[in-house]
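Same chain as my last thread, 147 residues:
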Amino acid sequence: MIIGITLAVLLLGGGGAIFYMLGMKPAAAEGEPTEEAASEEPTETNIYFTEFESNVVNLATSDEYNFMYLKYGFDLEVSDEAVAKELEEKLPRITGIAATVMSNQDYNEISTPEGHERLARELTKEINECLESGTVIGVYFHTFVAQ
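reply #2:
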């Protein structure tokens, strides 16, 4: 009888755990868009702003690296032509924002593909905060060299 009760508890507990795990959705990491937010993101437009020149900044220092430099260049995909015009008008400000974001990075954090994606999302967020006419959809690095 004890064996039967133990087996029943284990089967019910295991079945409940499986049901619970299958019903759960993975939680989004901090700063990651949720499924709902991802579905609200603008779709690809093929309108690009390419006026940024390559730039060089000092990366944040770490225990491993005292002096690291990052040469970067990127293009922006924008929601419409009005955003491209606004970016052109605010080019010095946007360039400063990009330099600030880039110089606060640690080499170990941005040297991976995931680090590049996180950096592109962070840069997109910071640029979008100063825009009034639309949004930047994506940041595409064409130059990214650290040494």
